[in-house]
Amino acid sequence: MLAIGELAERIGVPTHVLRYWETRFPQLRPLQRSGRRRYYRAEDVALAERIHHLLHVQGFTVEGARKALSDGSAKAAAPAVAAPAPGNGAASGRIGVPVDALIALRRRLADALD
Known about the structure:
mainly alpha; 2 domains; 6% strand
């Protein structure tokens, strides 16, 4: 299970956006413990990633994303998002590619052009 802050960091949105999504997407229901702390189970994490993909990658409106999720067409359209690899820095962790691998690729491409 992930706390709301951990999930927000993982998918790259502020925590208030996740709380807003809970009001607009009835399928997104994290566990709430004492103090109203939110904890997202694996299925909630997958759903939040699909919602993020629909809204921020594919450009759906909230209403369009709700319809896509309710009729099941979004399940096939949204690929699974990999967790960031530890120790790769914030920029590279988002796409799951280590900075060292990108630097090595850049050097190989530069050598090929010379």
